[in-house]
Amino acid sequence: xxxxxxxxxxxxxxxxxxxxxxxxxxxxxxxxxxxxxxxxxxxxxxxxxxxxxxxxxxxxxxxxxxxxxxxxxxxxxxxxxxxxxxxxxxxxxxxxxxxxxxxxxxxxxxxxxxxxxxxxxxxxxxxxxxxxxxxxxxxxxxxxxxxxxxxxxxxxxxxxxxxxxxxxxxxxxxxxxxxxxxxxxxxxxxxxxxxxxxxxxxxxxxxxxxxxxxxxxxxxxxxxxxxxxxxxxxxxxxxxxxxxxxxxxxxxxxxxxxxxxxxxxxxxxxxxxxxxxxxxxxxxxxxxxxxxxxxxxxxxxxxxxxxxxxxxxxxxxxxxxxxxxxxxxxxxxxxxxxxxxxxxxxxxxxxxxxxxxxxxxxxxxxxxxxxxxxxxxxxxxxxxxxxxxxxxxxxxxxxxxxxxxxxxxxxxxxxxxxxxxxxxxxxxxxxxxxxxxxxxxxxxxxxxxxxxxxxxxxxxxxxxxxx
Length: 467
Description:
This protein has 20 helices and eleven strands. The chain has helices at residues 2-24, 69-78, 82-87, 101-111, 126-135, 143-152, 156-163, 175-191, 194-208, 221-225, 236-246, 262-267, 269-274, 278-292, 310-326, 334-350, 371-387, 395-407, 428-432, 442-459, and strands at residues 31-37, 43-48, 60-65, 88-93, 115-118, 249-250, 254-255, 358-359, 369-370, 415-419, 436-439.
């Protein structure tokens, strides 16, 4: 048994090395990524290019699958006629052993392939098979390619106008509806559409004017976070109740109504920063970062959940952005928080998937590429560029991330691949098993709406030097 495991490990290492060598050859594909992950947590490796969500690229796209795929890619990069290299962008899935059907369908769809070439194990002439497939390929773009190009080609404000009337579908005092409401109010100003503000006022009326209790018998920090929108709605007394609840701290520098997770870093900060108590938020952010940020800049989800959950990193990033936006330039806490933020942004940039998305587990390429984490990290990064917290070299990172988010917003405003709600879990497997939700989703819709407005603001912002 041990000998068999050692042999399997050696073969896997050899395969990964070969992929890296082919990726390093001049030209595309140049990224080793993954289409999924096996039950024993081995990534199912791929070779990918970064143009899957490039709606303006005239290059056609081909995916090659099977044992000869590496040879095909090597040939395309070294010996193929220039005409073929100019006409076709290739991605490869050399082996799908252990890949579940959902992951395979997801990967193929978002590769936006015009042609898929399957190489049989017994195919003695994979290059001939590949070239025949390209020669016989239909001239029209595939349905997947047209769908992705159409989604990515939409202006951010067009996507925002699609999402704002739809989300939240379930009004409640929680951070998710509040993000959607605050973003809708912002869009109402941009679009000069008073009906959008009226929608928010109508949905929040039970609390603003109807006397409905904000929190119920059991206060949770997710609900406390939901009060931040009331500052934009002229209801300071309701925001004050949120600030009071968010200000309560227990031993160990943990929020009274939180869990000690990265979630808290946004849930409390957004209320405190917008409610005039950013000093407390800054102190607690530093304390949380000291416990949860790894030396490489990535955040683990919780002390008892030592995994780099994607949305958990999104919470940390948004909380840092909220605090930095509220702190004065000479505040003594600013430098330390800025360092925490910059280290996280650098770590995120290094871990971005080839298509611009971020993974459900940030440092696990085989986990699915997840919409909410991508939208949240994009938002924090875009704010940082506008404010000068990070330099303009992050601009292409943000633009690629936005194309990924846009590709995951369907034509009817439903959202694709949003990680379901989760608590802290002790193992990576716990996080890898969190389901991907596709459909009308308040969380995913709110985050996409937020990201749409941030990318629009970045595109129209004057250049600011890094500070």
